[in-house]
Amino acid sequence: MDTDHLIIGGGAAGCFAALTAASHGGRCLIIEKNEHIGRKLRITGKGRCNLTNNCDAYTLISKIPRNGKFLYSAFSRCSPQDVMEYFEGLGVPLKTERGNRVFPVSDNAADICQALKNALRKADVQIVRGKVKKLLLQNGRCTGAVTSDGKIYNAKNVLLATGGVSYPVTGSTGDGYELAKAAGHTIILPTPSLVPLVVKENWCSVACGLTLKNVRLRIFEKKKCRFDEQGEVMLMKYGISGPLTLSASAVLKNPSEVQYTGTIDMKPALSEQQLDARLLREFESAKGGILGNVMRKLMPGQLIAPVCELCSIPPDMRIGSVTREHRTLLIKALKAMPLTITDTRPIDEAIITRGGISVKEIDAKTMESKITPGLFFAGEIIDADGYTGGFNLQIAFSTAYSAGLSMAQAADIY
Fold first, then answer.
1. pTM to 2 decimals?
2. Among 175, 226, 270, 370, which is most buried by a count of CB atoms within 10 Å?
3. Same domain, 284 and 379
4. Burial class for 413, CB neighbours closer than 10 Å (0-12, 13-18, 19+)
């Protein structure tokens, strides 16, 4: 079967690239191994689909800790505002929430997938179910692909948009890495990003299931602060999760190889002096009471025992027996609950894959391979990832737009 543009992978990047190329008159065909397109897209944002982040270019680049500069051209061609305008043009009303996160008004990711499906049908983009087992390479150029059932697809251009290896149940199983490797590309070791962290301390386990809101998480590599933001942390049996933790994981190297420590500030709005004054007021109004009951006014009940244990202070101590030294220990604990990060959770629990096709081997403007002409890349398969908040889907859409536009222009030449 012949086509102008062959897209391998029917996720967010593959569909957007196909629609971009088709809008310039090219014939497009998507090969997708799942029964439906956009399977991973359906579960993003906890099923609500955090489509992008409604921010400016400077903020966008600052939220991409790995290879952000490589994406500058792609972001210039396709900004968050362009993505929002596009999907609203497809009939999906959008809204901007806290942190400039963009969602469909319906809070339903299926609406985004259906809009893409309708647009692909209208653009006459053919979707074939299958798994590509190898790329066709002739005279150093990529000219198509062969599926596992032996079908041959010839094309002027081929796009790899197969994703990474996170959430393998959605079809992201690393197939594209092997295809790219066979075409001469270097694969940066895939590791988990936007993933929960395993910690040594057991206080997280004691308070497992508790969500800490409006706290400040700091992560240090030796004495250098690598992450410092305020938000929400979830305490788990193995350590910590939640939005802040996921973002922190994006800037860390492999914690099993690099020593990281951290702290959680339970009261970031108060200085140690202000917190001491608050404690004294609470103690004054609770004369004759016990420490544990007073501490409930400052922290969730599940944390009282762990905090007191950390300070070596019995929670049933009478208020009249609490000394200034005791208060100092309690304040320091509240302002810096300790964390020793020993590892990340497995990659199949990660939202995004860090690593993939080396950006040194990809033209930043066109997303075409510098090694094998006719071969393009888009989305998570590229070694570029960002924080949580819609930034990774924006990477997918922007790189897909650049690739789709460039494929359409290249098709006029070959």
1. 0.89
2. 175
3. no
4. exposed
Do 202 and 302 lie in one domain? The reply is yes
Cα-based distances in Å from 24 to 360, 406, 408, 411: 28, 10, 6, 10
Those residues with Cβ within 8 angstroms of residue 202's Cβ, 6 or more apart along the chain or in another chain: none
In a domain, 350, yes or no: no
| Alpha helices (H) in 211-357, listed in sequence order | 243-249, 272-284, 291-295, 301-311, 324-335
Number of neighbours of residue 358 by Cβ within 10 angstroms: 17
Closest C-alpha to 353, from 399, 398, 389, 386: 386
330: domain range?
A: 196-344
SS3 assignment, position 69? helix
Residue with tokens 């994981």: 249
In whole angstroms, give the CA distance from residue 27 to residue 147. 19
The answer as to whether 162 is a domain residue is: yes
Q: H helices of 23-99, where?
A: 57-62, 72-77, 80-89
Beta strand 375-377 pairing with 152-160? parallel
In 3D space, the residue among 50, 26, 82 whose CA is nearest the CA of residue 246 turns out to be 50
For 351-408, the DSSP string reads SEEEEEE-GGGB-TTT-BBSSSTTEEE-GGGBS-B--SSSHHHHHHHHHHHHHHHHHH
Which among 384, 406, 360 is positioned nearest to 164, based on CA atoms?
Answer: 384
Lookup: tokens for 276: 């001491």
Convert the pLDDT of each residue in 200-255 to its tens digit.
999 999 999 999 999 999 999 988 999 999 999 999 999 999 999 999 999 898 87
pLDDT in tens, 258-270: 899 999 999 999 9
Identify residue 257 by its one-letter amino acid code: E
